[in-house]
Each structure stands twice: as C-alpha cells, then as structure tokens.
Design brief:
95 residues; alpha+beta; Alpha-Beta Plaits; two-stranded antiparallel ribbon; 3 helices; 26% helix
Length: 95
C-alpha cells in the first residue's frame, strides 16, 4: 500500500482528494462509511491526494503516525470485507 487514510478523515469525509486522484483509487459508500479508503491495489503512489486533504488525513504508509497504525489494515480490509472494516473503525474510534 502506498498511501493510507487515517483518523482525521473519520466523520469528515472531505472528497477533495478524490477529484485529484488520477486512477480513481479513493472510495467510500455514502451513507454507510465514516471515512474514505485508498485501494492498495490501485494506488500508484503519485501523492496527488496528500496535499489536497484539508484535515491532513492521508499519509505515505511508511510515514503514518504510530497512533494511527491500525488504519492501514482498515484501508486494506474495506476492499474485501466492508462490514468488518467498518466494525474495526468503530472499535478504533467509537461514534
């Protein structure tokens, strides 16, 4: 995975990053999700999304702050099991 969306995005979901992504690898299901997710198989590590995020929630995986390390797995999991990823997010940051 090249980039990870972390806790600052939770319950904010600004989509400025989506519009600048050249490969459309940032997703969410409106009405179901509390944050956006980066597809680790589609991301080309271009970095275009990072400066566009108004809440500084996007990080290169190797620069992700330790307190948000769990968000790497949540971003990956969302693409195979959305319900499990949502439950993991709720466990990390309860509503």
């Amino acid at each position: 995975m090249a980039y990870v969306i972390a806790e600052p995005c939770v319950d904010v979901m600004d989509t400025a990053c989506v519009s600048v992504c050249p490969v459309d690898c940032i997703h969410l299901e409106e009405g179901n999700d509390r944050m956006l997710y980066i597809d680790p198989n589609e991301c080309i590590d271009c970095g275009a999304c990072e400066p566009e995020c108004p809440v500084n929630a996007i990080f290169p995986e190797e620069s992700l702050p330790a307190q948000w390390a769990g968000y790497t797995a949540i971003n990956v999991q969302w693409y195979s099991d959305k319900a499990a990823a949502r439950a993991a997010l709720d466990a990390l940051k309860p509503r």
